[in-house]
Design goal:
363 residues; alpha/beta; seven-stranded mixed beta sheet; 12 helices; 20 strands
Length: 363
């Protein structure tokens, strides 16, 4: 626990409509009550705009394009920390990163275990590749290995069909999701296309990653069932290159991916207008480097969000969704300082002045 005392002055943004002029960090926790003078005699004063530590709700620590990269896991976590991302939801990694929990200088991680995919229907070396009859057993296994989440690969290119197609028969999904819930875990799934979203919604899924195939029908289903989405908009920008890579063998797939890309803002904007809960995630660790959460927040403006709403997808709302406190009395002091108010210009998020983790200034 930190023995540093900090006096924060300026604007401390406790919520989208809740700011105060000062706060204190004592013993690694935040307080809004002025301490006794003796306790703060040597306090360091920081003046600026303060937000809760940012959240990257979809990344992969220790994973790179070829598969597991345990030797780079620390570098991934440090890149996120430098960007102000102090809470990471790891959406699938073959690398055991529990050692990070013992490092007070590294971000907190909420893990989903390792991806669970259909045999030969996902990126090589990323996932457990299994058949439907084993899905329940693997879901239980990863629920116990993770931190309250399980990650399924919901659709991928079907080489026989030449296009995106669901990976799992509908009848396999409900018992698998029920099993995760029995283990105390929520379930999310990678889904690019349309049909898998119907199947997962009917099976009781909690969240969908990417969600580029949402339609009017499935948006209504998601709204009714309170299914959250993490659209990873900066990763959806890779769809044209995915299309080009598959064009020769799978022209139908290539055309589909280009169409999903072309209407991505309209799709996620319609989800936002319908009231779906949307959170910022970069998908760092597969195609993209870590430390890009500010770019993802900026992308949220393209789906119709206000600056304050976009910031909430990576701060107050995201922390509540993942069960971690923001800037409330007695909470761990994980916060980011900026010179200017990101509510005026979200691009400010890309340049933190200081990063405070567990009450210590680490950047």
């Amino acid at each position: 626990m930190s023995d540093t005392v900090l006096h924060l002055t300026g604007r401390v943004l406790r919520g989208p409509d809740d700011e105060v002029a000062e706060a204190w960090v004592i013993d690694g926790r935040i307080t809004f009550e002025t301490p006794e003078k003796a306790a703060t005699a040597d306090a360091a004063r920081l003046e600026g705009i303060f937000l809760p530590g940012l959240v990257d709700a979809h990344c992969h620590v220790g994973l790179e394009a070829h598969g597991g990269a345990p030797e780079n896991a620390e570098a991934h976590a440090l890149a996120d920390r430098a960007a102000g991302a102090l809470l990471l939801r790891d959406c699938g990694s073959p690398v055991d990163t529990h050692w990070i929990d013992d490092r007070e200088d590294l971000p907190r991680i909420v893990r989903a275990g390792r991806h669970i995919a259909r045999t030969k229907r996902y990126i090589k070396n990323f996932a457990h590749e299994i058949e439907p009859e084993d899905l329940v057993a693997y879901v239980r296994q990863e629920a116990r290995r993770g931190d309250g989440w399980v990650k399924l690969v919901g659709d991928w290119i079907d080489r026989d069909a030449g296009d995106l197609a669901p990976c799992w028969p509908k009848e396999a999904l409900t018992p698998a999701i029920d099993a995760a819930h029995e283990e105390g875990a929520r379930v999310t799934a990678h889904c690019f296309g349309e049909q898998s979203l119907v199947d997962f919604a009917e099976a009781g899924i909690d969240c969908i990653e990417h969600a580029s195939g949402l339609t009017e029908e499935t948006i209504a289903m998601f709204a009714e069932r309170d299914i959250a989405i993490v659209p990873t908009l900066i990763n959806l920008d890779n769809f044209p290159s995915f299309a080009q890579a598959g064009e020769k063998k799978f022209p139908g797939y290539a055309a589909h991916m280009r169409d999903l890309h072309a209407r991505r803002y309209e799709t996620i904007g319609a989800a936002r207008d319908a009231g779906l809960r949307i959170f910022a995630g970069t998908d760092a660790g597969g195609q993209l480097p870590h430390g890009l959460v500010a770019r993802e927040v900026e992308e949220m403006l393209n789906v119709g969000m206000s600056t304050t709403e976009a910031i909430g997808t990576a701060t107050w709302g995201a922390r509540e969704w993942l069960g971690h406190e923001a800037l409330v009395e007695g909470a761990p002091a994980d916060l980011v300082q900026y010179e200017r108010d990101p509510r005026d210009d979200v691009r400010v998020l890309a340049a933190p002045t200081h990063v405070i983790l567990r009450g210590r200034v680490v950047e």
